[in-house]
Amino acid sequence: MRKKKYRDAHHVSPAINVLFNIIAGVFAFICVYPFLFVIVISLTSEESLTKNGYSIFPEKWSFAAYEYIFKAGDQLLHSYGVTILITVLGTLVSLLVISLYAYAISRKNFSYRGFFSFIAFFTMLFNGGLVPTYLVVTQMLHLKDTLWALILPLVMNAFYILILRTFYSTTVPDAIIESAKIDGAGELRAFFTIVVPISLPGIATIGLFATLGYWNDWFNALLYIDNPSLVPLQSMLMRIENSMQFLLTNAQLSSSGQSLELLRTLPQEATRMALVVLATVPIACAYPFFQRYFVQGLTIGAVKE
Amino acid sequence: MKPIKNFIHHLNLNKVFLLMVLPGALWFLFFSYIPMFGAVIAFKDYRIGRDGFLASLMQSEWVGFKNFEYLFSTNDAYIITRNTILYNVVFIILGLVCAVAMAIILSEIVNKRLAKVYQTGMFLPHFLSWVIVGYFTFSFLSVDKGVLNQFLVWIGQDPVSWYSESKYWPYILVFLNLWKGIGYSSVVYLAAIVGIDKTYYEAAMIDGANKWQQIRHITIPSISTLMTILTLLAVGRIFYADFGLFYQIPRDSGPLYSVTNVIDTYVYRGLKVTGDISMSTAAGLYQSFVGFILVMTSNWIVRKFNKENALF
């Protein structure tokens, strides 16, 4: 009798366990379902869509949307290219700048560490707002309609600096750096040959945050990009959606020549969903392998020095 | 002469470190501190001149608090403030309760491998942009092809024109916010729960505590610091709305503005649609200023109770 009671306290009762499985399972399913649904829509033939609307059991399957994209999808390939370029370049620049900055302010023999820590930290508390930033980027730095407008605004983030600073000061012992310096290495060399290899997990975490940020960014394109050849993937999807909305809300235009022209240039229903799938698949395939870094980052960030 | 010499000597000692922070410091200068200074536009009648931003800023005329007076005399100021705060309050409370509950549920599921599968599934929305989620939402809410309207017709109801009926949107937005965020925050809480020292539970079991008592008296107190910190971060940002949620998901639909317009979307539209630069700067500064006071106050309050839990 005692033994049974003891075992009961280890686990919830079987009935509760079933209930918990149902709650977690149903919620997980709700989280994944829309993505599966969009995949199915992208594989539905255009006639079935017009006739039955969106359905998880389409009347007729079709690869036409994907064939169309790979045959006529200049804009898509171009946008994919822009997204990949800003993601790779942006992540590298971001990592270099953040890791150097965080390292300097983690070192106790840097006389101005307090000042530079404050400069970073204060941006989390107060900011000038969207409009002055927009004016600086467009009228002072003249970055409108350049790739740099998609890269530079996302380079720094005070939160990442704090995470990495905490990571350095908890994982890299001062003694190692001191001994490297006794062996004649300068601060910079000590950083690249000793500190970076030790702190790779922390740097990788920030790298993943940055990669996701660049891949998913549409806001900077919304603000700064008008030139169609510089539009990244997410932003292209947004523009298609806006044009559709424009057609729907201006129904009286529908029969006019202008809107017929617009309608002809827009991809069809299944094709639009296929674009969504193609923009999401790389992330959906990669994140299960990297998810623990995303958790780690936040938990490190929540630890104070 | 001596202080200057001392200063130069100091700079020389720190020159490698100064080089390391230089790119980042320049970034902060251009993307944070000049814009902060530029926020004085809110007190001016900004006119774009030919000589760039700073020159235009200097040349524009001072108007005192006129932009703010104008902003607060409209009904918009009330609506955007109300929407921003109310939505965030609901997001914070429901988000905290659901995330902690889900984390406890995940930690108590006997089959750990299944729990891991659920966890991975509910983490997916966190990695998707609001543009993508906007398409997902559209597949359910589309007037002629959407799943919800198919269902309504099937049970004999009239289809709803979702993107022009404002009364449903508070629920839709709250649902989507939870849908996107719970997976992530529950996994973070779960990481904290897994890290709790097992001997506490052993001791409690020997004292005869059942599972529910263990959860109440060990699990929840152990993660309360994390709960406070994450909530505090959210409370400090209660004046900031998630632009993507309020702009992408309702598809910028005019009839919905009364329930979807928040400070961030208002500022954006002021800048890009109506082009009223000084006014939207004023709205942005109002947001930053109140936001700053809120972070400082909430941190101060937490400090009074428990120094450990404060942010700074």
From TrEMBL, chain A:
**Location in the cell:** Cell membrane
Q: Name one GO cellular component term.
A: plasma membrane
- The answer to whether keyword Magnesium applies is no
Against CDD domains, the record matches this protein to: TM_PBP2
Please list the residue ranges annotated as the ABC transmembrane type-1 domain: 80-284
Classification via SUPFAM superfamilies: MetI-like (SSF161098)
Secreted as UniProt keyword:
no
Q: Which UniProt keywords apply?
A: Cell membrane, Membrane, Transmembrane, Transmembrane helix, Transport
Tell me the membrane topology, using the record's own terms: Multi-pass membrane protein
Example GO biological process: transmembrane transport
Q: Where are the transmembrane segments?
A: 20-43, 80-103, 115-135, 147-168, 188-215, 270-290
Q: To which protein family does this belong?
A: Belongs to the binding-protein-dependent transport system permease family.
Q: What is this protein called?
A: Carbohydrate ABC transporter membrane protein 2, CUT1 family
Automatic annotation (TrEMBL), chain B:
- GO CC terms: plasma membrane
Q: Topology versus the membrane, per the UniProt entry?
A: Multi-pass membrane protein
Can the keyword 4Fe-4S be found in this entry's annotation? no
Q: What PROSITE patterns does UniProt report for this protein, alphabetically?
A: ABC_TM1
Query: What transmembrane ranges does the database entry give?
Result: 16-43, 85-106, 127-148, 168-196, 217-240, 284-302
Which family does the entry's similarity section mention? Answer: Belongs to the binding-protein-dependent transport system permease family.
Protein name per its UniProtKB record: Carbohydrate ABC transporter membrane protein 1, CUT1 family
Which species? Paenibacillus aquistagni
Q: Tell me the classification of the organism that encodes this protein.
A: Bacteria, Bacillati, Bacillota, Bacilli, Bacillales
